[in-house]
Amino acid sequence: xxxxxxxALRTLAAAGAAVALLAVAGCGGSNSDAGSAxxxxxxxxxxxxxFGYEELYKQFxxxxxxxxxxxxxxxxxxxxxxxxxxxxxxxxxxxDVVALEEGILVKLMAKPDQFVNLLDHDAAAVRNxxxxxxxxxxxxxxxxxxVGLGTDVGAQGMCYRTDLFAKAGLPTDRAQVGALWPSWDxxxxxxxxFAAAGTGASFFDTAGGxxxxxxxxxxxxxxxxxxNNLIVDSNPGVRSAWDRTVAMIGAGLSGKLQMWGPAWNAGxxxxxxxxVPCPAWMLGIIEDQAGxxxxxxxxxxRVPGEGAVRGGSFLAVPAQSKHPKEAADLVKFLTSxxxxxxxxxxxxxxxxxxxxxxxxxxxxxxxxxxxxAPVGTIFGQSAKLLEPVYLGPDNQVVGDAVGDALTAVxxxxxxxxxxxxxxxxxxxxxxxx
Amino acid sequence: xxxxxxxxxxxxxVVSLVLSVFPLYWLFVVATRSNDVIxxxxxxxxxxxxxxENIRRLFGPDAEAAHFARGLVNSGIAAVSxxxxxxxxxxxxxxxxxxxxxxxxxxxLIAVLATMMVPVQMGIVPLxxxxxxxxxxxxxxxxxxxxxxxAFGVFLMRQYAERAVPDELIEAARLDGCTTFGLxxxxxxPALRPGAAVLGLFTFMATWNEFLWPLAVLEADNPxxxxxxxxxxxxxxxxxxxxxxxxxxxxxxxxxxxxxxGRQLVSGIMDGAVRS
Amino acid sequence: MSAEAPPxxxxxxxxxxxxxxxxxxxxxxxxxxxxxxYVFIAPFFVLFAMFGFFPLxxxxxxxxxxxxxxxxxxxxxxxxxxxxxxxxxxxxAVLNTLGxxxxxxxxxxxxxxxxxxxxxxxIRALLMFRLAVLAPIVTSVAAVAIVFGQLYGRDTGMxxxxxxxxxxxxxxxxxxxxxxxIAVASMVNWRWTGYNALIYLAAMQAIPRDLYEAAQxxxxxxxxxxxxxxxxxxxxxxxxxxxxxxxxxxxxxTEPLLFGQxxxxxxxxxxxxxxxMYMFExxxxxxxxxxxxxIAWTIFxxxxxxxxxxxxxxxxxxxxxx
Lengths: 433, 276, 322
Fold this sequence. Notes:
The structure holds three protein chains of three kinds.
Chain A (H helix, E strand, L loop, with lengths): L1 H24 L15 E8 L5 H10 L3 E8 L2 H14 L6 E5 H7 L23 H6 L10 E14 H6 L6 H7 L3 H13 L5 E3 L2 H9 L20 H15 L11 H9 L2 E7 L2 H9 L7 E4 L7 E8 L7 H11 L2 H11 L6 H5 L1 H4 L11 H11 L9 H16 L5 H16 L2
Parallel strand pairs in A: 1-2, 1-3, 5-6
Antiparallel strand pairs in A: 3-8, 4-6, 4-7, 4-8
Chain B lengths: L1 H30 L19 H9 L8 H32 L5 H12 L7 H11 L16 H14 L2 H9 L4 H30 L2 H6 L7 H6 L9 H36 L1
Chain C lengths: L19 H32 L1 H10 L2 E4 L2 E5 L3 H7 L2 H32 L6 H13 L2 H11 L6 H8 L11 H29 L3 H9 L4 H12 L1 H16 L3 H6 L15 H11 L3 H33 L1
Antiparallel strand pairs in C: 1-2
Helix pairs in contact in C: 4-8, 4-11, 4-13, 5-8, 8-11, 11-14, 13-14
C-alpha cells in the first residue's frame, strides 16, 4: 500500500499546491463591507441563546443615527463555541461585538490580545455598575486590560416540589423551607428526612449541580490559585465540596439523572425529584416542562450556604472589529444597569449590576407559576452574597474531570476514593500538556 | 416447503419494516401533539390534533428567529444543485475508472479513496478560511460549490460500472464511431441508471441533512434546514414539538425525492419480474 | 440489452488512410482515447484541489504547533504526537472505536445483504417494503436522539421495560462499556442497514436474469442461487460497502454523541467515546486546536491502516471462495 500511496500523495500535492498558494497569499481578507457611502456603519453583534436585546438595539440606533445594528444569534452555546473559535482562528467573521460565556472568557483571559481593551474606551467609568467579582473576571491580572463587560449572572435559588415536601411531612412555605437548610449539612439532613418518608422521588436531580453550588461557596479560589497553579488536590474547599456531595450520593439522595436529558426534562412534570438548584432563567424552563397542570406545585427558596452563582456571560469587542469605538459604546450601553434591567424583563437574564439588582423592576419581580415567589429578592440576595471566586483558564477542563468522576460514583462504577484519585490524575494530565 | 420459505421472507421483512419505520412514525406522532409527550411512559402512540397549530407556530412569530421557510428553500437549492452535479461527475469519473485504460489509474483511484479518510470535522476551520478569502461567508454557494464532486460518488459509480457496463457494449459502440463522451451518453449512462439513482438519493439526503458545515459558514438569517431546526432550541431548552414538526416538514421533500429516484430501481425490478 | 450487441472483431482501424481530414480525425481519435479519461476525472481533482487539499495541509501544519483558543503558540515539532502516544484517553477512544466497528459493521452488512436479497424478489407490496427499509435514512438525527434516548432510558426506557418482563434488572445503559457499546452499535445498525441494502439491491439489479434461470435449471435452490450467483456478481458492491463502513466506522461520531445526549466525552469514564469525538472534544471544547489536528491526522493514518487490513481480508476471502 505504501508504494501505492506515494504517487497518490504526490498527485495530490501537485494538484493542490497552486490552490493552497492562492488561499494563503490571496487577496487580503476584505471583510464584508461594514461602512457605506453615506457614513452609516453597521455593527454586527454575535450572540447565543437569548440575550433579550431587541428593544435596546432600537434605542441605540435612535440615539446614534449613523449606526445600524445586526444581531446574528445562534440558539445553542454548543453550536456557538466552535464558530467563535473558527472566527478567531481565521481572523474574520467575529463581527463587532461577541458574547462570551464565562467558561470561554476565563480561557481567553490567558491571552487577551484578540479583544479590544475596553479600558481604552473609558470603561473604567462604569466599573461601579458591576458586581466586583464580575468586573474582575474580565480584567487581566495586572489590571491593565479589560476584555469584556458583564451581562447576566446565573444567580441560584433552590426550586422544590411543594406536593412532594408535603407528602414527606416537610414544610412547604418557602421561608420555612429556606430555614430548613442554612447550610449544606442541613440540606443533607433534610434530604435524609425526605428519603426516609419514601415518597418514591429522589431528593435532588443530579450530584453535579449540587457539587458546583457547594464549590462556589468555598472561598475565593477553586481549582487554580491566582498564579494559575493547579491546586485541585490541595485546596481544602474542593475536597470539602466533594466529600459533602459524595455523602449525599451515599445517602441515596441523587436521582442520578443526566441534566438536559429526556428523563431529566420529564422529571419536572412527573415529580421524580423534589429539589433542584435553579438559576433565574431555569424557572421558565421548569414552567414549560412541568406544564400548566402543575402550576403552583413548584416553588423556589434560597439556596443553602452563602449565595451561589453559576455561569453568566460577557460582551467583548474583537480586535478584528473595524469600528472598535462604536462597538465599545454599544457594549457599555447594553451592559448598563438600564440595559440589564431590560434584558431581565425580556428574557429573565439576571443582572450582574448591583444598581439593576436593586431596581424595583428586578427586586420586585414575582413569578406567578411559582406561587408568586419573589424571585427578584431571592436571586438578588444570592448574587450579592457571593464572594468573588477566581476560576483560571483551564477551569472547565478540570471541572469536567471532577464532574465525570462524580457521575461515575453515582453510577456505582467507581468508589469515592477511586473516583477522587482519577479526577486528580485527569486534571493534572489536562493541565500539563 | 415453498410456502414456509415465503412466510419467512415476509416475517423478516415485516420485522424490519416495523423497526425501521417506528422512529419516523413517532416523529409524526410528536408533531401532532404538544410538548408533554416527551418522557411519558408508556409513550403515546396515537396522533393528536395539534399538527395544524404546530405548523402555524413553526412559520409564525414564535419561531421567527429560525427562518424556517428560508432554510427549506436554501436546502432545496443546495441539495438539487449538488445532487445533479455529483451524479453527473461521479458517473463520468466512475465510468472512466472502471472501464477506460489510462496511465496512473490505480494511483488516482487510491487518491480519491484517501480523500475520504480525512476526518470531516477537522476540515471546518481551514475550509472556512478559504471561504473568507473568497468572500463567501454566509453565502449559499459556500455550502454548494465545495460539494459539487464527491469521492464517495466516484467510488460508488466505479464499483457499479464495473459490473453493470459490459465491455462488449463499449467495444461495439466504439466500432459504431462513438467518441468516448458519446459512448458515455448513449451507451453507458442508461446502464448506470440504477446505480446513479442510488447515488442521487444518497447525495440529496446527505446534503439535506448536513449540519456542521452550514452551521460553520452560514448565519442564522440565511440558514439551511438543519441549521434552522437547531435554532428552534435555545441554549438549554428544546421545544420538542416544534422541532419535530419542523423535522416532519423537512422530511416530506426527502420522501418525494425518494419516490422519484426509487422509481428507477422499482421499474428495474418490475421488468425482471415480468420477464421471469 | 447486452444480448443484442453482435459479436464483432475488436480493434479494427476505422480511419481510412491518406486524406487530410481523416488524419485530423485520427489525431482527434487518439486524443479522445487517451485524453478523455483524464478529462472525465478532472472535475473531481480540480474541485478537491480547491476545497479539500488546503484543509488537509493546513491541519497537518497546525498539528505541529501549540495552538489553542488564544492563538498560535509556536512550533512544537512532533510534540502533539508524542503526547498523543502516551495519552490513555486517546487509546481508550481507539479501543472503543474498534470495538464499536466490529459490533456495528459485521451484523449490519450481513443484515443488509439478506434484506437486499429479499427485496430483489418479486414479492407483494414491494414498494412499501423498500420505502420502509430505507426509512432510517430519511429520519433526522433529532428524531433518532429522542427515540433512542427513550428506548435506552434507565428508569422508563422501553428496552429495560421489556427486560423487566423477563426478570432482568434495569440496566444503566451508559454506565458500562459493554452495555453502551451494544446500545450505540444498535443505533448504527439501525441507521445504516437500509443504506447498504440499497447499494446491494442496485448491484443485484445489474445481474442478468438468465443467470438465475440457468442456475434454476441446474436445480439450485434460492439459497444456493444467492451464494453462487448473487454474491460473486455483486462483489464490487461488497468491496465498496466494506471500505465505506471501515471509513465510517473509524470516523463514527454522530450516533455515540446522540446516545450520550450530546456529551462529547462519551460517558463518565469515556465508556463510548470514539476517536472522532475525542478529536472534537480537544479541538472545540478544550480549544486545543493543535492537539486536535494531531488527532485528526492520526485518525487518517489509522483509517488507512484499517482500510489496508480490510482490503487484505477481502482479497483473502475472494481467493477462498474461488
